[in-house]
Specification:
- The protein has 407 residues and is an alpha+beta fold.
- The protein folds into 3 domains: 3-173, no CATH class; 194-264; 269-406, CBS-domain (Roll).
- Helix content is 54%, strand content 14%.
- It contains 12 helices and 10 strands.
- A hairpin with a 2-residue loop joins strand 3 and strand 4.
- Helix 2 packs antiparallel against helix 3 and helix 2 (48-79) packs parallel to helix 5 (153-172).
- Bound molecules: zinc ion (ZN).
- Residues 69, 73, 115, 172, 180, 407 line the site of zinc ion.
Length: 407
């Protein structure tokens, strides 16, 4: 999922909330199915304005519920030592991004379980509220239409939101990794075997199995068949098949990510870094940098040194900070990233830590420093090259390691 297409909504409890543009698709689908389908059927006497206002409020409250589900993961995760910098809402719901794997199976268990619990509690809370407002809603089996027509907008909302949250909670409890239930399964296997990798492999296999069931069911529904539990209908089928496809991808990627991480933990950054690089002086003009250093060497990032002392880095991405006609009068020192703002590595760090930093800070190279001197430069592509040479792993996603998704 492209992080760059996401809109920042703000921060809650120090966690950044982002909305991906793809959320618009499901938001419109929900509003449409309620505004053009369910609510007019319940309330034939309502005005179009009231129907659409209720439908859109329902969709907003639904994503509010999804956000609460994700926030519960984030808050419990953080209390258990798992940093969660952001939550993204997108087409298939919400995703909390973990910066690293949970430190223990218990931490994973608590963090995973709280999500479905939150959804179930919300679901019963909404139904309870509806009951307080109108008393027990009794649907006359002979004339269900009339029972619904008597409900006001607020109760209609609650009666839709309650079950949808309960379904969300139950769906997330399916034991297929990376769904919450799959994480609970992984935590249990991890606790039982003591081995995170084995636990992830098995939970991911169950996750892929479930994903294939979804894809097959969706496909049958697209063909016009009725499938037990899932029902029938072209759009529903398409949707279920898409969710299956997404879950299958997530299950495969999550396992591979962990595998990559474990391989890289054994590789110190000094084995991957480039040691043949040219430092440049801060007095150099940008034009000289391009003509005399960038073009002949092919190097894209340069350590800046003054009298043998490392004071910052300049890379090709810094150049557009100044217009081309100012390159003769601007020096490297003017636009470089000074040392105190740089993310750097120490020779003792491993390639897994470097890969995490590349993802977290959105940089493509990191200097390795010892006693204030640059020993070498590690580039993102060098790690990916190492992986493809030593682990036979194809380089994917434009070489961009994804953060760990948590549903
Ligand atoms: Zn969840």
């Amino acid at each position: 999922m492209g992080e760059r297409t996401a809109l920042r909504l703000g921060r809650v409890a120090g966690i950044e909330i982002r909305v991906d543009w793809s959320l618009l698709i499901i938001f419109s689908l929900i509003s449409l199915s309620l505004g053009a389908g369910l609510f007019p059927a319940w309330h034939p006497d309502w005005s179009a304005l009231l129907i659409w206002a209720t439908a859109i409020t329902a969709a907003v409250l639904f994503f509010g519920s999804v956000l609460l589900h994700e926030l519960s993961h984030a808050v419990v995760g953080r209390a258990n030592g798992i940093p969660i910098p952001r939550i993204t809402l997108f087409m298939f719901g919400g995703m909390a991004h973990m910066e690293k794997e949970p430190p223990s199976w218990r931490a994973e268990l608590y963090m995973a379980a709280i999500g479905p619990i939150t959804s179930l509690v919300l679901g019963f809370l909404f139904l309870g509220l509806a009951k307080i407002v109108v008393g027990p809603v009794e649907i006359d089996p002979d004339n269900p239409q009339e029972s619904f027509a008597a409900l006001g907008p607020a109760v209609s909302l609650l009666i839709w939101l309650g079950p949808i949250n309960i379904i969300l909670g139950l769906f997330n409890l399916v034991p297929g990794f990376p769904l919450d239930g799959g994480r609970i399964l992984r935590a249990a296997l991890w606790g039982a075997t003591g081995d995170l990798l084995t636990a992830t492999r098995r939970a991911s296999a169950v996750g892929q199995g479930f994903a294939w069931i979804l894809m097959a069911s969706g496909f049958l529904m697209i063909l016009g068949l009725r499938v037990p539990i899932f029902g029938a209908g072209f759009i529903n089928g398409l949707w279920i098949a898409l969710i299956g496809w997404f879950l299958n991808n997530a299950a495969v990627v999550s396992y591979r990510q962990l595998l990559v991480h474990q391989w890289l933990e054994d590789v110190p950054v000094i084995r991957l870094m480039h040691t043949r690089f040219e430092p440049v002086s801060p007095q150099l003009s940008l034009q000289e940098l391009v003509d005399d250093h960038v073009m002949p060497s092919g190097q894209r990032a340069f350590p800046v040194e003054e009298r043998g002392r490392f004071i910052g880095m300049i890379c090709l991405r810094d150049l557009p900070k100044r217009p081309r006609d100012a390159w003769r009068t601007t020096t490297v020192g003017d636009i470089m990233t000074p040392r105190h703002e740089l993310v750097t590595l120490t020779p003792e760090q491993d390639a897994a830590a470097a890969l995490d930093l590349f993802g977290k800070r959105d940089v493509n190279q990191l200097p390795v420093l010892k006693d204030g001197q640059v020993l070498g430069l590690v580039r993102r592509e060098d790690i990916l090259k190492w992986l493809s040479l030593h682990a036979g792993l194809p380089v994917t996603e434009g070489g961009r390691p994804a953060s760990r998704p948590l549903g």
